């Protein structure tokens, strides 16, 4: 392909990206608009024109899968040598190289998980915490580190950022935990994933010679998913660049769904101010989805009103018109799951492959009913976010055998040889009728067969080529497609796409989630729905259930985000919910989903009302409904168990802890007498 033929394969906006080879460039790319195509063609054009030496280009993204896809596309364009890595992979490569000379010795071991370290730090402080609390505390440790917040300034910065108490602990306690957490790591001689970036930042700041060497190696930068950059990642990027301006960033503010981890779209929206004169190119032509899907996606964002970001892209559909979006209301969760399974069966009969179908939900707890319904219908599935593909035993065994196949001499075409090899570990042509582990094992092996077919057809790869591809994918954790329906949370689905997508549980309390307090949190929940909608190429099915259980109270309302969109236009949601109405919806949902805890929740609310009247303050300032619900569910027996619950800080624990425990025990509480003590 000549350079002109290369550029002719792009639309006008993509071509504008591909032809801008020097200086800063900001690309606002909507979902399905071909951003990866635009930036890989830009790199290819730069290399072909001699503007770039491929070894001096660093393309950075956020997932190993995206980095692997970028490398694959560049290879197909005949461009070799470009580094396409995640922030962590690129930083680890540099840190490992410079550590012996900059620090001395070998790089400390990287702890795969924070939970054990956080649990030990929590124990040293006498906090005590269950698994859920440790998860929340680990998340706060990560937020602090990627936000460049130290233990000394945590309390002030967490307050400014609107961070709530974590696991019932106030900001001062979390600050102490952060400090002890660092002590625990140092004693064990390990670092965490955030330390990889932090340590490299430190070396680049302190060692001018190292910084100069890195900047000599990498002269041109491309950053994908720039709306997800954290302050720590931006700091590293600044040090990589130095005083240069050779950077292209690509992002979509409407897909900002990780702010709770420290990601912020501010760097994307502020790019034109930071790099004065930098052109901004908008990619708006959606090649992924049908006009029906695109129209729904645009409407979801349009109803954000004043909370819609000015940098958001309005998509323009490029595909032919197709089938309408389906909206379904079910009596209960079980009926919804069965309805989804029936519709998937129908799609399979319409020749939609199961691997091109996904069911997306807000919380992982929603998957159980769906898994059972799919299993009952004999439909294969995989839950995204479970065990990593290349960690599965059958996959590891198969790759060992395939390596041996490279050394054997055979006249068989590669796909046939792969089938013979994998047959020795249990692969058969037809999927087994059994579900569970047996079916999952077959799905894993069959995905290797499918990958072999694809590589042979597209690259005429032999066995050595297949093994090389598997090695690269293993390093990047870029798993091949498994022939089953994908079950995934909306967060886990970002960056992926399918022919058919089912969005289940689109109701108040789930989307937005009941814990979403404040305009910013609700706005992010709206963006989650937008991300889910834009995963679909053609078939899109939205549904919710009026009740959680069979025969349960039908108190659920459809999501406010679909007001004016849902076909019955008012029968489900009835317009934008007020704060009070939204609170009632969350309470109704709690009653329905936790009937055994409803009586205690009501007693806690009665007690809270008496306290509020006694001190002449609004009830929510005593304890929020979500905190009372957590208490009713956990039923703490002592102050230590109460302290780990969300919304119970040290001040409220001291003021109300004894009374709350008395209510939990079923005792009558004389509020006035208690408060006068």
UniProtKB/TrEMBL annotation:
Positions of the HRDC domain: 594-674
Which of UniProt's keywords are assigned here? ATP-binding, Helicase, Hydrolase, Isomerase, Nucleotide-binding
- What biological processes does GO assign it? recombinational repair
Domain of life, per UniProt, equals Bacteria
Sequence ranges assigned to domain UvrD-like helicase ATP-binding in this UniProt record: 8-290
Q: Name one GO molecular function term.
A: ATP binding
**Catalysed reactions listed for this entry:** ATP + H2O = ADP + phosphate + H(+); Couples ATP hydrolysis with the unwinding of duplex DNA by translocating in the 3'-5' direction
Q: Which InterPro entries match?
A: DExx_box_DNA_helicase_dom_sf, DNA_helicase_UvrD-like_C, DNA_helicase_UvrD/REP, HRDC-like_sf, HRDC_dom, HRDC_dom_sf, P-loop_NTPase, UvrD-like_ATP-bd
- Hydrolase among keywords: yes
Q: Where is the UvrD-like helicase C-terminal domain?
A: 291-538
Q: What is its EC number?
A: 5.6.2.4
Any Pfam family matching the protein: UvrD_C
Q: Which residues bind ATP?
A: 29-36
Q: Please provide, in alphabetical order, the Gene Ontology terms of the cellular component aspect for this entry.
A: cytosol; DNA helicase complex
CDD domains of this UniProt entry?
DEXQc_UvrD, SF1_C_UvrD
Family label: Belongs to the helicase family. UvrD subfamily.
Q: What protein does this entry describe?
A: DNA 3'-5' helicase
């Amino acid at each position: 392909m000549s350079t002109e033929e290369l550029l002719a394969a792009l639309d006008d906006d993509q071509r504008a990206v591909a032809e801008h080879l020097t200086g800063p460039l900001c690309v606002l790319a909507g979902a399905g608009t071909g951003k990866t195509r635009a930036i890989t063609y830009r790199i290819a054009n730069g290399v072909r024109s001699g503007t770039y030496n491929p070894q001096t280009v660093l393309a950075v993204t956020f997932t190993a899968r995206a980095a692997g896809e970028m490398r694959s596309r560049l290879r197909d364009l005949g461009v070799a040598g470009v580094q396409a890595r995640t922030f962590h992979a690129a930083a680890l490569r540099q840190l490992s190289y410079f550590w012996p000379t900059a620090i001395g010795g070998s790089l400390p071991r990287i702890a795969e998980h924070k939970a054990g370290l956080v649990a030990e730090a929590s124990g040293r402080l006498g906090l005590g915490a269950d698994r859920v609390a440790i998860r929340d505390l680990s998340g706060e440790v990560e937020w602090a580190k990627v936000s460049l917040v130290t233990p000394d300034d945590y309390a002030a910065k967490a307050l400014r950022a609107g961070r709530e108490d974590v696991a019932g602990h106030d900001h001062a306690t979390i600050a102490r935990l952060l400090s002890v957490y660092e002590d625990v790591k140092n004693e064990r001689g390990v670092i965490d994933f955030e330390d990889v970036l932090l340590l490299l930042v430190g070396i680049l700041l302190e060692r001018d010679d190292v910084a100069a060497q890195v900047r000599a190696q990498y002269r041109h930068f491309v950053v994908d998913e720039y709306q997800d950059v954290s302050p720590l990642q931006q700091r590293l990027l600044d040090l990589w660049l130095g005083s240069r301006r050779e950077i292209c960033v690509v992002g979509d503010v409407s897909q900002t769904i990780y702010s709770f981890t420290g990601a912020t779209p501010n760097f994307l929206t502020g790019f034109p101010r930071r790099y004065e004169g930098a052109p901004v190119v908008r990619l708006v032509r959606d090649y992924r989805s049908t006009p029906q899907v695109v129209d729904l996606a645009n409407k979801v964002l349009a109803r954000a009103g004043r909370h819609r970001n000015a940098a958001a892209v309005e998509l323009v559909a490029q595909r032919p018109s197709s089938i309408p979006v389906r909206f379904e209301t079910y009596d209960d969760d079980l009926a919804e799951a069965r309805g989804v399974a029936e519709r998937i069966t129908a799609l399979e009969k319409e020749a939609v492959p199961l691997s091109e179908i996904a069911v997306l939900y807000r919380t992982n707890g929603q998957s159980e009913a769906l898994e059972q319904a799919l299993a009952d219908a004999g439909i294969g599935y995989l839950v995204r976010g479970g065990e990593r593909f290349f960690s599965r035993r059958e996959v590891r065994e198969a790759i060992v055998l395939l390596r041996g196949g490279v050394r054997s001499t055979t006249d068989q075409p590669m796909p046939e040889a792969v089938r013979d090899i994998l047959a020795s570990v249990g692969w058969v042509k037809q999927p087994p009728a059994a579900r569970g582990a047996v079916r999952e094992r077959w799905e894993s092996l069959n995905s290797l067969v499918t990958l072999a077919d694809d590589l042979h057809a597209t690259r005429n790869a032999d066995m050595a080529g297949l093994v090389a591809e598997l090695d690269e994918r293993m390093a990047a954790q870029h798993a091949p497609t498994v022939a089953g329906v994908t079950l995934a949370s909306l967060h886990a689905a970002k960056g992926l796409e399918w022919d058919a997508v089912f969005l289940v549980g689109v109701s108040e309390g789930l989307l937005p989630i009941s814990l979403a307090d404040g305009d910013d949190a609700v706005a992010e929940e709206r963006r989650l729905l937008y991300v889910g909608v834009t995963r679909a190429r053609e078939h899109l099915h939205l549904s919710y259930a009026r009740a959680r259980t069979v025969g349960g109270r039908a108190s659920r309302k459809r999501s406010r985000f679909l007001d004016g969109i849902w076909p019955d236009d008012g029968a489900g949601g009835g317009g934008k919910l007020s704060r009070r109405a939204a609170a009632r919806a969350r309470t109704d949902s709690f009653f329905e989903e936790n009937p055994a805890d409803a009586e205690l929740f009501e007693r806690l609310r009665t007690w809270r009302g008496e306290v509020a009247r006694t001190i002449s303050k609004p009830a929510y300032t005593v304890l929020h409904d979500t905190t009372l619900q957590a208490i009713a569910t956990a039923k703490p027996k002592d102050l230590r168990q109460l302290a780990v619950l969300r919304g119970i800080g040290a001040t409220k624990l001291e003021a109300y802890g004894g009374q709350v425990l008395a209510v939990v025990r079923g005792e009558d509480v004389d509020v006035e007498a208690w408060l006068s003590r």
